[in-house]
Amino acid sequence: MSIDYRLFIKPLVFTACLLPVAWLVWALLSDRLGANPFEELTRQSGLWTLRFLLLTLLMTPLRELLGRAWPLKYRRMLGLFTFFYASAHLLTYLWFDQFFDWQEIFTDIVKRPFITVGMLAWLLLVPLALTSTKAMMKRLGRKWKRLHQLSYGIGLLAVLHFLWLVKADLREPLIYMGILLALLGFRLWHRRRQQFPLRRGKAVADLSS
Amino acid sequence: MLIKKPSDIKPSEITPQSVYQRRREFMRTSLGLLLAGAGLPGLSAATLPRSGKLDAVKNPSLSTDETLTPWANATEYNNFYEFGSDKYSPAKLAGRLTTSPWRLSIEGEVARSGSYTLEDILRPHALEERIYRLRCVERWSMVVPWVGFSLAELIKRFEPTSRAKYVEFTTLYRPEEMPGQKRRVLDWPYVEGLRMDEAMHPLTMLAVGLYGEILPNQNGAPIRLVVPWKYGFKSIKSIVKIRFTEQQPVSTWTRSAPSEYGFYSNVNPDVDHPRWSQKRERRLGEFLKRKTEPFNGYAEQVAGLYRGMDLKKYY
Ligand code: HEM
Predict the structure, then answer these.
(1) Mean pLDDT, consecutive 10-residue segments, chain A of 209 residues?
(2) Does ligand 1 have an atom closer than 6 angstroms to the CB of A79?
(3) What is the ipTM of this complex?
(4) How many A from CA of B231 to the centre of ligand 1?
(5) Residue of A nearest to B256 (CA)
(6) Residue A203 included in any domain
(7) Is B77 within 8 Å of A34 when comparing Cβ atoms?
(8) CA distance B218 to B158
(9) CA separation (Å) from B24 to B19, B29, B213?
């Protein structure tokens, strides 16, 4: 009898997704986050949020490219980890940056565009996390898909957040933007191909006739 | 002079670590010896080459008695875009900067303009240690014991003309050794400026060391400006040119984002950076944030320079 190794993959991926936060906590406690550790926590959690968001958005194209269903099995988990890291990121801001000074926080949200779009991105993640269960998927039916297409907008807001917060060096946010646009561009291209599968063939045929 | 030439190092010996360490030693030796050779008070040539110590006379009247930021933090967490736009690259990459020989040119509205060696620039000045607060525009701060002398003393020596209203400083441009300059993140070379009365103010200093040690490269070796009541980016590093002008210079950060970084850039809790409030700051090593003080706590000494000026307009 052989063991079905696939049973172990999901717990393994789950554990891997916890590694960044485990590393951050360990690095904080052992004084490895540099001279300004609390700022570093905000920055690292922000970066991991963005990375998880992009990983989540990678699953659908990956299914198409590989022609296999397994990437979709990880989409929900990755999406929930995105929300987890986004919430941790938000918490580092509320706590270590503002010390829960709600008036300052409110001012930041309405006055600083990079905070406004970051906040909007987090708020939009909330309904997606809440409707991530199988039951919700069933209940919402076709609407579920529409709702979860909000993740494209969240991606754009997240990248805008990053672009607007850097002082002068845009290289890093632009790299992330490039990856996001590739992932979204793939969907557009793929949809066109599915909608008009015969067009091109027909056009060629027309021309040659 | 007993200066080891860089060519003494065989290419075969070059690994990043050894280059770094040798250069540090070489720099310390050469700056130490040149200062010792210049007959500065309190300097002992015998101890210099190893430790790189600069025995400076303490100046308590211009110093704060706040707790010093640990040396490790002050020398690992730096904004020095010439070596990369993150805080930790300068400490990693600045070792490759050659700081000796070093020349400084004095230009513009000044009687004794010319190109001088660092030795010539430093020779007549006695070194002092002053403990200043440093407030970065990014809302963190440190307390640093600088070693140097008043910029005013140097300015007087070179006799600016009556037309000199401003002083403009320029950082070295050497992309081979300053990898951050290979990309146009900022409009190189880095330029900063002060109004003449700001430059002549007794708090304004040129530093060649910190914590009694020769300035590490990432902190702006071999010579940098320190203006404690302004945001840190005004305190330009690794200076190669000082120019006296009639027109107000355009600082590099002002050129990059005029609405975010003004010419004055005095520390001011009431004027927000467009992307964050300046009301509070985190002193490195502390958890809770402190209130930011007007002029970084130096209002008593410097507020007079700006009497009658609208500080929200001239930010
Ligand atoms: C989906 C949501 C979000 C994503 C993907 C995200 C992503 C990021 C990224 C990539 C960074 C830059 C890290 C770096 O500097 O290397 C960052 C920084 C930051 N984010 Fe977010 N963020 C999100 C939501 C938020 C929210 C809701 C807030 C606060 C209300 C926020 C506040 C900040 C702050 C204060 C910084 C640091 C800025 C600085 O270093 O000056 N973010 N975020």
Answers:
(1) 78 96 96 94 98 97 93 95 98 97 96 97 98 93 94 98 93 97 95 74 45
(2) no
(3) 0.84
(4) 23
(5) A168
(6) no
(7) yes
(8) 28
(9) 8, 8, 11
Task: Dig out the tokens for B189 from the structure.
Answer: 């070379």
CA-wise closest residue to B233 among B183, B174, B171: B171
Q: Which two tokens stand for residue A58?
A: 């990678």
Q: Give me the domain span that covers residue B108.
A: 43-306
| Count of domains for chain A | 1
pLDDT digits (tens, 9 = 90+) for B99-141: 989 999 999 999 999 999 999 999 999 999 999 999 999 999 9
pTM of the model: 0.85
Cβ <8 Å between A38 and B287: yes
Q: How far is A207 from chain B (nearest CA, A)?
A: 49
Give the closest residue (by CA) to ligand 1 atom 40.
A43
Atom of ligand 1 nearest to the CA of A43: 13
Domain residue limits at A126: 6-190
Q: In a mutational test of the pocket of ligand 1, which residue from A42, A48, A54, A177 has the highest number of ligand atoms less than 8 Å from its CB?
A: A42
From B77's Cα to the closest Cα of chain A, the distance in A is 6
The values of phi and psi at residue B22, to 5°, are -65, -40
Query: How many other C-beta atoms are found inside a 10 Å radius of the C-beta of residue A45?
Result: 23
The Å distance, Cα B257 to ligand 1 centre, comes to: 21
CATH of the domain at B151: 3.90.420.10
Residue A32 in domain? yes
What is the distance, to the nearest Å, from the Cα of residue A150 to the centroid of all Cα atoms in its chain? 11
Does A135 map to a domain?
yes
Q: Which amino acid is at A155?
A: G
User: Does A34 contact B76 at a Cβ distance shorter than 8 Å?
Assistant: yes
Give B2-51 as a DSSP string: ----GGGS-GGG--HHHHHHHHHHHHHHHHHHHHHHTT-TT--TTTHHHH
Does A60 fall in a domain? yes
